[in-house]
């Protein structure tokens, strides 16, 4: 079995111990609060971040600096047979392209994968990739299989704060005003790496029911689903109960969102993601 290093970022939600045991190198995105930058999940916890976000309106995020990637690639030279680079969607962050640029500058040969997503599906791509590696697949065979995961994943979000989306540039001022006046909740979806508005729905409850209906369409080709929340565990437990009523056989995981989601969608945001099995 050839040795493989995995390069990803903090949006992948990968446990640090698992990463250390499986040659996964996680480069953290930056959270910027009141003009002070923190390495996501390294220099600030989710709880600390949300507390600061409540106190300051100036909250944003940024990709890791190219120098951090360059240092990493230099340190990995000659240690592995292959290096697989897989990051959050290039449509939402410059992290993937910055990582590849750093590899080119340091003359490090890598196999690049744009996950077109983040969070649970990105984590599953890496974890499944490691299983395939242990079964003897080559790096290129693993990439081909991960590409199939990308084609068969679904990821939906119900953002808690349109104001936060407006500040981060995801929602226009007109959309914000209309949505607030009509008390509309957006149901968002990842499509080809971009986040689009799937539907505009009155009340959070109706938006959640719509999301459940979408999951039901795929229920015969889904083995597990992940409920993600931005510091909203009570609603996550409620969604788990509701899904269990119509799909008691489904494996349900509840996971906290990485803080960068709170930056753009607001504290309280809920999401559901799954991968169709072919």
Automatic annotation (TrEMBL):
Keyword annotations of the record: Lipid-binding
A GO molecular function annotation here is:
lipid binding
Q: Which Pfam families match?
A: DegV
Q: What InterPro entries is this protein classified in?
A: DegV, DegV_C, DegV_domain_contain
Which segments cross the bilayer?
none
Instruction: Look up the domain of life of the source.
Output: Bacteria
Q: Does the keyword Coiled coil apply?
A: no
Show the NCBIfam families listed in the entry: DegV
Question: What's the protein called, per UniProt?
Answer: Protein DegV
Species annotation: Paenibacillus nuruki
